[in-house]
Amino acid sequence: MSEERKKVLEMLADGKITVDDAERLLSALGESDRTSAPQRKNTIDFDGLESSIRSGVEGVRRTVRASMPHLRTAIRDASPDVERIVGEATASIPGFIEEMTRTIRDTFGQSREPDEERFPAKFERDFTEDATIEPGAQLALHNPRGTIEVITSDGNGNGVRAEVHLTVHSLDDDSARAAAESVQLTQEPGPDRLVLRPVFPRGREDATYRLDIRLFVAKNLRLDLHTTHGDLLLPEMASDLVLGGDHGQLRLAGTSGNASVQHNHGKVEVGRVAGTFSLNAHHSSLELDEAVQETSINSHHGSVRVRRIGGNLVINSHHGALDADEIHGNAVANSHHGPLTLQQVAGDLTVNSHHGPVDVRQVGGSLRLSSEHAPVTVENISGELSAQSNHGPLSFGAVGKSAVIRCTHGAVVIGPVNGEVTVESDRGPVHIRGAGGRATVRASRGDVRIENPAGEVLAENNRASIEILSSDPVHSAYTLSNNRGNISVALPEGSNVRVQGFVRRGQVETNLPLEVSANGQQGQVVSGELGAGGASLQAEVESGTLTLRRA
């Protein structure tokens, strides 16, 4: 609590101001606090990644002034274009806010369960409604309370039958019977659509109604069905479906058409959907066997389990686990407060994760990742990698192309990488297990270890070590700088490099034929050529040890 608020409350307690005066003062202070308080971002910002990496790595200390123009060019070329990452990922996610608004409205707009103490009398009645529907038209039935079960026939007939079991609760037997006899299931034909609508007595608030409906239709009939406080059950269909439910189970064996589902407070089970599939769910779990084409899922407070997606997938998951086996297109996953597990994504993958671990086995395309407060593990990426993380470790296996990573308060492990690697890390170690192109690292308070770099190496660190290990002879330039930490470089037999090293406070250790001398201060200088010379190995240590040894 701020000092200003304390003073206002003290004046109120002492009777110096009225309650209204205190309320106005506290309100004004609240507006001021909200105005001045920094706003917390909900997603990690990729937009400044390229410029930040460039500006950071360009600050690497140079030991030889002649190398500076070349170094600037190398660093500029090292950073790939990742400015559009967040924009593209966000554009891929559909309008979940509108869907969520509708979900909340539908959820809280439903009536409560019958009060049997208030309405002790019960009356049951069975009746049937037969209808004819035009070929190609859609049948719509929204049941205010009760179960809908669909039973199909293989023919292409235009007949529809609804068998209704009605249950009425009221104050006494006569009231329950009278209310039940007034209930109807009316037909409302329209252009390309037939609506079956339950009609109840008007002006009566002394009864509650439940309709359990068995719906007999042709297998290829398009359906728009919704029910509340009951189950929605469908067998294999051959048509487009619009389905919804509240406080019940929804089970669809499958369809050769498209399926759109809106469901709240109940389990959703779907078999094979040959067309597109979309789900908007609140407090509902989903088990989906297969969706052959495009799929979009918006789930709040419920787990999502998917076996196979044949096309692209867009998913927004809040407070629930997300688990998918096969995605044969591109995928965009936005996960909040729940684990995300993907076995195989054939195309590109974009992930935005908050407070939930990410575990991905195989990405056939490129990966764009934003993560906060959780570990990330990806085994294999065939394309490019762009990743950013706060307060969580990053572990990446093989990367087929280039990689750009920013991480704070977490370890980074990556490789081997076939292309260039650019890493910016703060308060976490960096381990690059092989780089086919240039390796650029700017780190602080975390050890840096680079193994088997095939190209140029640019590395800067502060308050931790830098270690470069290579199993093959070195023929590329190394530019290394460490403020308060050691630098160690292993040079195999056959390396061709020109060495120039400077330790301001500390020492040089080497078993190579290099010249070591005092720098006139509290450190040492090392120089010389290995093999035919050529590539420049420049190293500067502000305070620590520079080790150059034979691998």
What do you see in this structure?
With about 550 residues, this protein is mainly beta. Helix content is about 15%, strand content about 50%. The chain has a 41-stranded mixed beta sheet that branches. The longest helix is centred in the first third of the chain and has 18 residues, at about 20-35. Residues about 30-115 have low confidence and may be disordered.
Q: How do you describe this structure in short?
A:
The protein has seven helices and 41 strands. With 551 residues, the protein is mostly beta strands. The two termini are 60 Å apart.
Secondary-structure content class: mainly beta
Query: For the CA atoms, what is the radius of gyration?
Result: 34 Å
Low-confidence stretches: 31-114
Q: Give helix % range.
A: 10-25%
Strand content is: over 45%
Give the overall average pLDDT.
85
The total count of strands amounts to 41
